Structures are given as structure tokens and as C-alpha cells.
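so im writing up the methods section and need the Beta-galactosidase record in one place, dumping it here so i stop losing it
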Amino acid sequence: MLYGGDYNPEQWPRDVWKHDMRLLREASINEVTLNVFSWAALQPDEHTYDFSRLDDIVALVSEYGMNIIMATSTGALPAWMSLKYPDAERVDFDGRKHRHGARQNACPNSPTYRHYAAELASRLAERYGSLSNLEAWHISNEYEGICYCPNCARTYRDWLRARYGSVEHLNAVWGTDFWGHTYDSFDHIYPPDRAGDGSYDGPCAVLPAASLDYARFFDDSIIDAYNVEKKAIRRFDAQTPVTTNFMGNFYQYDYQHWAKDIDIAAWDCYPRLGTPASDTAFWHDLIRCLKRKPFLLMEQTPSRMNWMPYNALKRPGQMRQQSWQAIAHGADSVQFFQMRRSRYGCEKFHGAVIDADGTNKTRTFQEVAALGRELAEVGPLIEGSMPKARVAIIFDWSSWRGLRNAIGPSNDLDYLREARAMYAELYRRNIAVDVVGVGADFSAYDLVLAPALYIVSDADAARLNDYVRQGGTLVLTVMSALSDEHDVLHQGFTPAPFHETAGVWAMETDALAPDHTVPLHFADSSDQTDCAVQDASTEQTDYAARVLCDILVSEEGTQVLATYGEGPFYAGKPAITGHRSGEGVCYYAGAFLNGPAMREFLGIVLAEAGIPTVNTNAGVSINTRYTADGEALTFIINDTDEPRTVTMPRSGTDLLAAGTPATLKAGATAQLPPFGVMLLR
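--- predicted struct ---
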């Protein structure tokens, strides 16, 4: 199992390198990521390349028996390129042309950038592609940002021509009759920036379809730039996996759209102090499902994180807990940024394995070393194993973007928050979840949840309707299936593509004032016992709707699970319904639910789907990965900074126990210390 992370030799005198390698090996580090931001050093001018320093650090890392992930170093432009070829730099949303500085500063549609990036990647692959300890190629670094420059404008028009064929078709799809926006030529179309249709505040535009298409276009632009480098690498190295490192909470790029182009999924995980463990797990599951195989935890901090209002330390044991959480959800690596703390620059207060003292005496180093010993012992058993989920949550970038673009119905509407709220209840119940795109194969799942699936094409709606008719259980919510793939409202009884399947019609939707809720009354609170999981105590009067409330008209044969309580004029109207369609059932939550209501509702849904809850005390999570031979590896993790009593969900041997591991029987209890971890084989 890879254990390591970013090492930046350019920041250190050469006499420090060997000292650092000795310390890293002492910490059981077996991999380093090199060359992330070295373009200026590798290519001091457009005609000169100098790999001498990189050769030396590669030789030293190899001498110490460590593997290498080699970055292409194209995440930041060298100054000579910015100055001589200004087309390589971006133009921002406000129309400002950028000069040399920052990072991810290149326009992906710049021919200059693509030429030199491909040339550098090619030379790197020719030089290092045959290394026996090369584990992967890491293209660029943490892609981010949008460009609105003339290069992008021209390429965008070509993209639109290919997508729509004629400007008349584009006008019809975009609805350009609105506010007289009709185009007579593709050449009249510009990116939706501040000077044009984005003037109301980014990312919102007068024509939401234009904003949605520009986001899709820029996805393709970044992926194309990535593939320019990948193709250059493949000229000299046909086998080593090629990837890049994604980030969470990042609507600008659709990671699901990247899945076919990366060989292995990788992401950088930086939860803030106090971030719910379920929020982090949500992204682990989403990244794992990109390739449906183990992923790389490419970066995390071993101690404190930069870029926050305050750089809080990870508490004792918390780095280990977060690392094992990633592994429990499918990671086959634990990697850090950074191996040694920077002496200068804006990240000099970011945590590192080796701190400024340069010793092995810090708490952080000792925790890293202890985790390294654990991974060296049990990593080979875990590698390649995978979770198995009967439940899927649909997370859709078009819906995320479309709801961000929308003016109304509520500024409190947050697609990511609602998806994570539904996921959090499943996490609380220790139910394995796949987080998938709307184009996934749903036949493998007993239950599919689609919170606020705002944008859905007729074809994808038909697939979900077929899934229900063939015996699946589907959950829809308020703001589901309002618009098609162009963000044009579906016509008919909302949710029009699912009207017959859902057996309900949302006649109107009320937006609640901030912090205002509407009581909900469930017809049957049979799940109250199950709701006591993790010490949750819920009374019927605590159930509430928040943010948005559909005023529902239920069709004949539709079961009303909950109604709105006193207060609004629609008190007594249906709020949550269930409807059988073919062999399956479709549930519709006409409001976003508070925690108690979510527990009650999903308890009903899970019981219908035959999916059991695994009871634990608050803050304890249980996940299982299965080897190719069917062996179960069960991770029991205390996500809190307080001790917890746990009940063994199955019999097994705790591979992380000190001394000679004892067999623990199913139903037996044990104590987990703060941030404690058990691994049952």
C-alpha cells in the first residue's frame, strides 16, 4: 500500500535530502511524489531543458527503496512563457487579463500552453518512463478555475457548432427569445462573463443554458489539455497509470465526466476542524465510484491545514482515524502534503511529516511512523478489496451547477448540502453507499436516492422509471426533474418525467424564510426504535420541513406517509408519499427534511427495501471491504474525540490490536479510545 506524498527538493539544500530520506524510511514511507511545481527549473527558457536536479533526487529516492509518483509540473507556468506568450495566461470572470503569478494560471485552450506542456511531458516520460519504481504519472496539480479569454471564446463557438449544428437549433434549445437574446451567428456568442450575460453575479447568467454549456465546454477543455499530456506520456510509457488529483466541494469541474480519461481516481482530502465525518466519507465514496476500483488518497495534511481562517491542529490520533476512514471507503494509499515543511511561500504554515526542526521527535512524525508500521503490516491484505453497496445516491454535476445558476426559488437552496444530508443518515446507520452519476447502471442496487435531481434528460428519466418498474426503490425530492439537460423546464405535472411513477403532482412550491420550518406529521412512526440508533431521541413534534415545501396532489393509489402540520395554508396536505409502479416503489419527499424527519423517512424506505441498519453508538462508523476471495475486512472507527463502546457486528480478529490479536465474537463489546480504529478480519 502506497504511503508517502509530496517532496519538494527545490526548496532545500542538497545536504538536507539524504537526511530527509533516512527519516522518511524510518516512518515507513515507501513513496514520494516528485516534480509537482518545477517547470521553471526544468525549462529555464523555451529552448533549454535541465533535468540534472530531478535526476539526482530520483536517484536518491530510488537508492532508499521508495517508489515514485512523477508529476508533469504543468500546474504553474514559468515566467518566460507568461511574458513572451501572453495568450497562455487566463482572463477571469471580470475580464482581467492575468500576468505571471499564482498557479493553475494557464488557459487550457492556449496553443502555446498545450505545445510546451506536451513537450515537457514527453521529455519526462522518455527520461523516467522506464523506472522500475515508477508507480504513476501525475498530470498538473489540483486543476481549478475558469478562463474567459479570446482563445476560450473561439473554442467555445466551435464546441457549440459541433454540439448544435446550427445557430437556429441553439436558439431554440437555449430559449434565446428571452430578453431578445436571439443570435444570428455563432460568432456573436461570447462566454457568459461579467461584461455579458454573467453580469448579474457569477456563475448566474441571463440564459442558464448558456452558463451550463460553458461549464460543460470548460470541462472538455481541461480534459483535452490533460489528454494532450497523457498522449505525450504514452509515446514513451504505455503502461504506467496516468491520473491527476481532484478536490472535493468543487462544482467547477465534473469529475464524473473525467472518469474515462483517468487510469486511477485520486483526490486531495482536507476536512476542516469540525467537518462531519460523513461529509468526508461522501467524497471518498464518490471518488471511488469514478472508476469502481480502489482510489488514491493523494494528499492530506498530517497535522494542520493552510488556507483556513485558523490553522487548527489535528488532535492526537485524528490523522490515523482519517487515514483509516479513507481506506475503509476504498483508498489503496495514504499520502500527505507535505513530506517536509516549506521554508517559504504561502504554505509555510501547512503541516508536514518532517517539521522545521528536521527531527523525528515531533508528535506528528511519531504518529506518521506508527501508522506507517500498521500499513506495512496489513496493507497487502487490504489492497484491491472493495466495498459492496446495495444503495446508491445520485450526485449530478449538471443539477449542482443548474441550481447554483438559478435565480430562485430560494437562496438557501444548496444541492451539495441536501445530497450530503441524505448521505449522512445512511452513514449514521452504517449502510454502504455508492455515490454515482445519473448515467450509472442502477440494476445492481436495491435502493437509489436522487436528492434534488433538478436536471434530468428524458432518456435518464426513462432509465430510472424502468428501474422502479423492474423492482427497484427510488427516492425523489422537492426540486427533482424540473428541467431537461439544457435547463429548460419540463412541461406537465411536476415532476413531469416521473409523474406516473411517483404518483404525485407538485402543484406549487413554497419557499420558507431563513431558519423557518414547517412541522411534519408522519402517518406511521414505526421506525422510532430504529431511530434510537446512535443515541438519537426523537419526538413526533420534532419532524420538520425546511427551505422548500411542495404542495402535493396525490394520485389514486399513492400512500401519504407524512403531511404538513399547523402553520401554513397547506397544513394537512401531503408532504411525503410512496407509490408502487410495476414491481417497485417510488417515494417523493416534497420538502427538504430536518434530521429527525430524515431518520423517520429513510427508516421507512430502508425497511421497504430490506436494507438493515447496523446499530452503533454516536460517532462510530462501520464499513467493510471484500477481497477477491470474498473475505470480509470490517473497519470499526471512532470518529470522535471521546471513548466509545462498540458491539462487534461479526466475529473476527482485530488486526490492529497490540500484541497477539484475539478473536472477538459477534455481539461482544469493546472499548474504542478517542479516534480509535479496529480492523476485523
